[in-house]
């Protein structure tokens, strides 16, 4: 086709430096090649892989049809930025809706030509929805269609139709569609666009009724996959950034690493159990039925699940490639930033040890808001700034380490920026580590979405935790446990004894108890985990004032800037001559690899109690059991746990604990956890999940996203981000940030901010607005504590000072 073309014959542009025809062809080709790389199972839709790819291509070549108007071409080549901004706000210069109607027209022709009664009739409508919002966030499907009722909207399209460069568009689409059997006519479209819009509107009730009656998650998954393929292909062509290469990661990578590190030769009980678990899980890969796509690795904390799950995923990846021609990414997702770097460092060390070089970002990628904005390929091509961010946010890597927020707010989203990577989850191997932290109210919702990915898009999921929630029920065969001997491993570990005291006490009573204990046991490391920042501050300051000899004090909470928090965790993990007294909020729980002798935990849910127990005698290095004490603390109003956890979960925890003895050993934990999650599953309300599922199944994208919050601030206070100018580096970073205001070009502003973003975010804390009365710096939407006033508002040990109300001047 291309040899016959002369681009000189085309005058319409999609971008200042790109011919519209070339852009449409590139986006169509990228869309079809992306979809053809996927192994899909879409028989339920009456669609095979080839038809799906053709639909992706047709959406790709139609998405910018509306750029063929004189209005858009005038906007594109306007040289005065202020005039151009004014044009952008006028609806006749927009191209989404007219392109969406044209997409519907072409897809209807294609579907009719297939003459297959089984194929979904709603494909043209889905194409309309996708193209209409390819430059914005998705809205609710019915609202998007109802817009065609508005006569003012249709009159805008009247103007656009009259201004179309019809002659060139005919040539463009004759070339783009020449291999298809169906007939189309640009002139007929221009004459009948109102009747086509009327048809879309008329079919609305049928379309909405179909969604409401079937309540089928597959429509949502297919719509977002096609949307993701389109916007990703569009952005790749517009940016001229496309990194794709065949990268092989050895399935034996972790095996070799363990040999290099001598882990197989260790005689300690911990390493013996770790090796047994590792071997059991990785040996299972050969006999695995690949039709089962949802797995669990349920093992005690500290038993090497990070390396075990990575090795299993690499071996599964190799098998999928060999037997099913699936090129699977590995997406490793964790709930907390405090453990992202820790686990990423383990992965990086595997590559450095075995491959004797740091892995490039197209092999191993870290994606969260504190990560470096830098991307290097195996070919040593380097990207920074916006280009780097583009590649990072597109998950252009073999192994991605990211947060639950990034992952779950991608699969449950209407946001254009998040959904660009949605299609990468198809055919991937997704490891969900510390999965017990997913709120139970979302279990049914996520079960349905994850099941859909597994069934229709051949995505494999591995749930990893010591406390396996019953999102999928093993008794019903919904999930395959890879650790058949998990009961044995929980019995073999005898690291802790847990004592439960359900009689509530106030902080003064608690302080007397712990003062006595820290004084009586001067050689023991202590960890105190409190439920609220203010109670943790009170306990820390009390213990610090004791001025005990040979003791280092550490305080951890989100009240402290991330830079300092991560440094403290690193210090705590290092060996020291002095004993350690650590006071923390619950951020210490999941996966933070520290090891203490005695833990005190303010009452929480079973999974949180179990997680914090994993910080006690973690490596089984003591000749005695570690001690975990669970207490119930209260203020003058209520128990502290009532501020943080749902009453339902707390009541289930108390039920389980009352059924057990007051002393609990590690071998009891598996039964305790299973009993707890069974009670939660059997008696919890699924109303919230069911409501969100109805939004998903009815394609109510905007409503869904506004109601789904993976991290729920139970207190409900409005928060403000605050920049803490804690040191001289922060002073310079704030100066650079203020200079961004002087840049008129938003792309220049964004590029400059990306250069400082990582360091900037290291000084950000999130504070309730009621505790921070300082006015925000004008136009910056952020709070600010200047260096010269730091001692009044930010304590170097405990972070933001709550007791003082800020009266400082803010620039």
UniProtKB/TrEMBL annotation:
User: For this chain's UniProt record, which GO biological process terms are given?
Assistant: defense response to virus
Q: Does the keyword ATP-binding apply?
A: yes
The Helicase ATP-binding domain sits at 286-486
- Boundaries of each Helicase C-terminal domain copy? 506-670
Instruction: Give the residues annotated as coiled coil.
Output: none
Q: Which PROSITE patterns match?
A: HD_CAS3, HELICASE_ATP_BIND_1, HELICASE_CTER
Protein's UniProt keywords contain Nuclease: yes
Name the domain of life this protein comes from: Archaea
- Which InterPro entries does the annotation name? Cas3-like_dom, CRISPR-assoc_Cas3_HD, CRISPR-assoc_Cas3_HD_sf, DEAD/DEAH_box_helicase_dom, Helicase_ATP-bd, Helicase_C-like, Helicase_Cas3_CRISPR-ass_core, P-loop_NTPase
Key words of the record: Antiviral defense, ATP-binding, Helicase, Hydrolase, Metal-binding, Nuclease, Nucleotide-binding
- Domain (HD Cas3-type): residue spans on this chain: 13-236
Q: What Gene Ontology molecular function terms does this protein carry?
A: ATP binding; catalytic activity, acting on DNA; helicase activity; hydrolase activity; metal ion binding; nuclease activity; nucleic acid binding
**Family to which this protein belongs:** In the central section; belongs to the CRISPR-associated helicase Cas3 family.
Q: What is this protein called?
A: CRISPR-associated helicase Cas3
Q: Which organism is it from?
A: Methanosarcina mazei (Methanosarcina frisia)
Name the encoding gene, please: cas3
């Amino acid at each position: 086709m291309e040899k016959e073309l002369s681009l000189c014959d085309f005058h319409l542009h999609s971008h200042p430096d790109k011919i519209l025809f070339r852009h449409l062809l590139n986006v169509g080709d990228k869309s079809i090649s992306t979809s053809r790389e996927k192994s899909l199972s879409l028989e339920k839709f009456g669609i095979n892989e080839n038809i799906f790819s053709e639909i992706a291509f047709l959406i790709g070549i139609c998405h910018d049809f509306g750029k063929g108007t004189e209005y858009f071409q005038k906007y594109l080549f306007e040289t005065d930025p202020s005039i151009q901004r004014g044009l952008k706000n006028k609806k006749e210069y927009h191209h989404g809706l007219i392109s969406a109607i044209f997409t519907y027209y072409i897809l209807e022709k294609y579907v009719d030509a297939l003459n297959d009664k089984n194929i979904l009739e709603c494909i043209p409508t889905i194409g309309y929805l996708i193209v209409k919002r390819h430059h914005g966030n998705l809205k609710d499907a019915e609202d998007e269609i109802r817009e065609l009722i508005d006569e003012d909207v249709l009159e805008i399209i009247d103007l656009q139709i009259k201004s179309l460069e019809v002659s060139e568009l005919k040539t463009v689409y004759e070339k783009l569609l020449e291999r298809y059997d169906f007939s189309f006519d640009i002139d007929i479209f221009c004459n009948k666009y109102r009747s086509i819009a009327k048809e879309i509107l008329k079919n609305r009730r049928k379309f909405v009724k179909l969604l409401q009656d079937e309540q089928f998650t597959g429509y949502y998954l297919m719509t977002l996959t096609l949307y993701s393929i389109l916007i990703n292909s569009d952005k790749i062509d517009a940016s001229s950034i496309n990194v794709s290469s065949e990268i092989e990661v050895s399935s034996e990578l972790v095996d070799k690493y363990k040999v290099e590190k001598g882990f197989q030769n260790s005689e300690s009980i911990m390493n013996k159990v770790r090796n047994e678990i590792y071997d059991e899980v990785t040996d299972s890969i050969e006999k695995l039925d690949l039709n089962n796509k949802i797995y669990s690795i349920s093992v005690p904390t500290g038993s090497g699940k990070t390396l075990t799950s990575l090795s299993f995923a690499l071996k599964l990846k190799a098998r999928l490639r060999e037997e099913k021609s699936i090129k699977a990414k590995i997406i490793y997702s964790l709930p907390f930033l405090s453990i992202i770097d820790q686990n990423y460092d383990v992965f990086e060390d595997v590559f450095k040890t075995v491959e004797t070089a740091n892995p490039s970002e197209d092999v191993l990628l870290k994606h969260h808001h504190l990560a470096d904005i830098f991307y290097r390929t195996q070919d040593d091509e380097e990207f920074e700034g916006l280009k780097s961010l583009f590649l990072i946010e597109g998950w252009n890597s073999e192994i991605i380490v990211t947060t639950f927020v990034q992952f779950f707010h991608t699969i449950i989203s209407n946001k254009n920026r998040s959904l660009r990577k949605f299609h990468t989850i198809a055919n991937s191997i997704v490891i969900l580590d510390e999965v017990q932290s997913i709120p139970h109210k979302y279990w049914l919702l996520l079960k349905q979405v994850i099941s859909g990915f597994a069934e229709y898009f051949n995505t494999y999921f591995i749930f990893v935790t010591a406390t396996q929630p019953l999102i999928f029920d093993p008794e019903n065969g919904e999930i395959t446990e890879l650790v058949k001997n998990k009961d044995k491993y929980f019995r073999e570990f005898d690291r802790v004894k847990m004592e439960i005291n359900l009689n509530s006490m106030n902080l003064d009573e608690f302080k007397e108890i712990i003062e006595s204990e820290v004084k009586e046991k001067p050689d023991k490391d202590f960890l105190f985990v409190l439920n609220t920042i203010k109670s943790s501050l009170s306990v820390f300051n009390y213990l610090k004032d004791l001025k005990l000899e040979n003791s280092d004090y550490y305080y951890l909470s989100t009240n402290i800037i991330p830079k300092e928090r991560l440094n403290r965790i690193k210090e705590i993990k290092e060996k020291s001559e002095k004993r350690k007294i650590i006071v923390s909020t619950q951020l210490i729980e999941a996966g933070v690899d520290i090891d203490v002798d005695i833990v005190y935990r303010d009452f929480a849910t079973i999974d949180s109690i179990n997680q914090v127990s994993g910080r006690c005698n973690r490596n089984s290095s003591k000749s005695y059991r570690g001690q975990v004490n669970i207490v119930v603390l209260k203020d003058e109003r209520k128990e502290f746990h009532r501020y943080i956890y749902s009453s339902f979960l707390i009541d289930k925890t108390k039920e389980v604990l009352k059924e057990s003895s007051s002393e609990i050993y590690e071998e009891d934990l598996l039964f305790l956890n299973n009993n707890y999650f069974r009670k939660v599953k059997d008696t919890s309300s699924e109303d919230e999940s069911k409501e969100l599922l109805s939004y998903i199944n009815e394609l109510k994208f905007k409503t869904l996203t506004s109601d789904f919050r993976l991290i729920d601030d139970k207190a409900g206070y409005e928060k403000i981000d605050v920049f803490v100018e804690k040191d001289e580096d922060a002073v310079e970073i704030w100066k650079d940030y203020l200079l961004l205001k002087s840049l008129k070009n938003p792309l220049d502003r964004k590029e400059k901010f990306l250069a400082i973003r990582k360091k900037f975010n290291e000084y950000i804390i999130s504070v309730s607005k009621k505790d921070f009365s300082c006015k925000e710096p004008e136009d910056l939407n952020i709070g600010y504590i200047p260096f010269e006033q730091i001692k009044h508002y930010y304590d170097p040990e405990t972070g933001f000072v709550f007791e003082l109300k800020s009266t400082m001047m803010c620039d």
